[in-house]
Design goal:
The protein has 503 residues and is of the alpha/beta class. It is built from 17 helices and 21 strands.
Length: 503
């Protein structure tokens, strides 16, 4: 028996997924009133009628909630389409008379009932997890392994509102690539069948509760608890972001410096390499004569990433982000290249857990590092050291500075990972601002350092000095042994080796 359901019965945004057989996981997420649950129900009815074998398990965290939600919704779809004669509907069980396929409803509050699920014909092929954000990852794994029948192409549909940016769903399906998953975000604006009065109710939250509107109506990832940064502005900026103009990393050649008996990077060989999966994201390319600042956070305790944040110091705009897990020496060398690329930028790397990247930049003779003033332990006299030290005094200062930037000029932020970290940056029970348990703060701290370091860099564009010059090892030795006036003289005599940046 052939049953034709008109395409107008579906919201157009969902139609590409109606006949999807390529993916194991169909992830439907977004705001209230988007029609994602209705589509999940519609799709299962179509599959039960059209596929030779399609036995469905519909799951919620608490079994009793199925009766007034998922079960009622599937019955409603069958009724609206005039298909009651084609289905047997009993207590929490729906059977298609055409194919013999079944749909049953269970709750994860009773795991034994899930284990005992059986069908009159064939095996389990489809699972729909409604309000998937309510279940644990362990619950999901147990359901996932149920779809293991020989020759069966199983599918799991997940529908939920993304209320917590730290949820395992985000980490599993959004923070990393899952080739077997397709994700679709929708809002009430995508639902052509939505009641106009309800639509006006949702839009009313724009003014009465903007944060609620962004999270629960527009389906932005939200936070639980009070964030340090303005969550409303951060979420709004996340909605506006454009993708990076390029991804990649730097390659270079080295040379032996006989003066210092060391192997160093040959500046003239530094090249940018395009790589779709590259760990450096460029949002605005280097501009001639513009001074830049780079803040760095090293992978220390409670951190997994080395990060570099590049600011255009004339505007304060975030123009580039480096974020990767690699060895300290490789991080230092990529930061060296990044600094040279951005007009020999001022580099300020956090030196708490390890001073190696700072010392490596010194060894490589990078000419422009952040300088902090400390007191000599023995002489009690002031001394200057490279790198930024995060202390009980400096930490709240740099965070407060970044909070102000986000509050007043969030449009300067361009990196999604950085903004995502801001949504998990909260004040703990002791009043300390820090990332929530399980979250990262690498990008936030590197950016805070970059903004704090800006006064050590010029704020105005510089005139160019012509083409870059290539210096010999002897010339470099003379340069590093000279004072500021001497360095300026040598540049005027031999040419500028630092691209267009003056310092």
């Amino acid at each position: 028996m052939q049953v034709n359901i008109p395409r107008r019965a579906f919201n157009p945004v969902y139609l590409p997924l109606l006949d999807d057989e390529a993916h194991r996981y169909i992830v439907l997420y977004g705001g209230a009133g988007s029609g994602k649950s209705v589509f999940a129900a519609q799709r299962l009815i179509v599959r039960m009628m059209s596929k030779k074998l399609c036995n469905v398990l519909v799951v919620r965290k608490v079994g009793d909630t199925n009766r007034t939600s998922t079960f009622a919704l599937l019955r409603q779809v069958i009724s609206r389409w005039g298909l009651y004669s084609l289905f047997d509907i009993t207590d929490l069980r729906i059977v298609c008379k055409i194919t013999g396929n079944e749909c049953i409803f269970k709750g994860l509050d009773d795991p034994e009932k899930i284990k005992s699920v059986t069908f009159a014909k064939g095996e389990l092929t489809d699972i729909w997890i409604e309000e998937a954000s309510e279940i644990t990852e362990e619950d999901f794994n147990q359901l996932d392994i149920r779809l293991r029948g020989k020759g069966i192409h199983g599918q799991i549909t997940l529908s939920f509102n993304p209320v917590n940016i730290l949820h395992w769903l985000k980490k599993r399906f959004f923070d990393r690539k899952e080739p077997r998953a397709v994700t679709l975000k929708t809002t009430y604006k995508d639902n052509l069948h939505l009641d106009e009065d309800y639509k006006r109710t949702l839009e009313g939250y724009k003014t009465t509760d903007p944060y609620y509107y962004q999270v629960y109506c527009l389906g932005q990832w939200g936070v639980i608890g009070k964030t340090i940064f303005d969550a409303q502005k951060v979420n709004q900026r996340l909605c506006e972001l454009l993708p990076p103009i390029r991804h990649g990393h730097f390659i270079y050649q080295t040379f032996y410096d006989p003066v210092y008996n060391e192997v160093r990077i040959q500046d003239s060989t530094i090249q940018w390499v395009e790589d779709e999966d590259g760990y450096i994201s460029i949002y605005e390319d280097v501009r001639e004569g513009i001074p830049y600042v780079i803040g760095g956070d090293t992978a220390g305790e409670g951190s997994d990433y080395f990060v570099g944040q590049v600011l255009d110091n004339t505007t304060g705009k975030q123009v580039c982000t480096l974020r990767h897990q690699f060895d300290e020496d490789l991080y230092a060398k990529q930061m060296y290249c990044l600094g040279i690329y951005y007009n020999t930028a001022l580099i300020a790397i956090e030196a708490n857990y390890s001073s190696y990247p700072v010392k490596e930049l010194q060894r490589l003779r990078y000419p422009r590092q952040y300088v902090r003033t400390t007191e000599d332990t023995y002489t009690r006299k002031p001394k200057e050291s490279f790198g930024f030290k995060t202390t009980s005094v400096t930490r709240p200062v740099i965070i407060a500075g970044l909070v102000e930037v986000v509050r007043e000029s969030v449009e300067l932020m361009n990196d999604a990972d950085t903004l995502g970290e801001m949504l998990t940056f909260v004040r703990n029970e002791k009043g300390r601002a820090e990332a929530e348990e399980g979250a990262h703060d690498d990008c936030v701290m590197a950016l805070a350092i970059a903004y704090y370091a800006r006064p050590q860099q010029d704020y105005t564009p510089k005139k160019t000095r012509g083409k870059k010059a290539t210096w010999t090892a002897d010339m470099w030795e003379d340069y590093y042994n000279a004072d500021d006036a001497g360095k300026a003289y040598l540049i005027s005599k031999w040419g500028d080796p630092f691209w267009q940046c003056a310092f």
